[in-house]
Amino acid sequence: MSLLLAAGADVEARDSLGRSPLLQAAAQRNVRAARLLVVAGASAAGVEPRFLERVARSAAREMRAAEARLVALSLQQPGTLARAAAAAEAAARRSAQLAAWEARLEACEQQLAARQAAVLGRTA
Description:
The mean pLDDT is about 85. The termini are far apart. The protein is flat and about 70 Å long. The longest helix is centred in the last third of the chain and has 44 residues, at about 80-124. It is mostly helical. It has two domains: about 1-80, Ankyrin repeat-containing domain (Serine Threonine Protein Phosphatase 5, Tetratricopeptide repeat, Alpha Horseshoe); about 90-124. It has helices at about 1-5, 20-25, 30-40, 50-75, 80-124.
């Protein structure tokens, strides 16, 4: 399932009976596949709420396990978590700077277009 999703498989594709991959995963009680599909953006329409609760609990357990692994890694290699957090913060700053530069570029392009229109209007 992971490989299909990574390759861009359509999470809303239907089989000959009109069932989506998430509905098929729910019918087979495949919580792992359902979790992957939900994370990939599959619509939960028509899926039993109790099954979706199982999917959510499974995801929460996996998140807690990942958090525990991060803490253990940080204890084994001091500073690992701090370095990862600093890298994430730097990436967020770069992203914000890029957005600001893009906004400035767009403003400059608009000003240039307005000046060109003004010049063309005077020479016409």
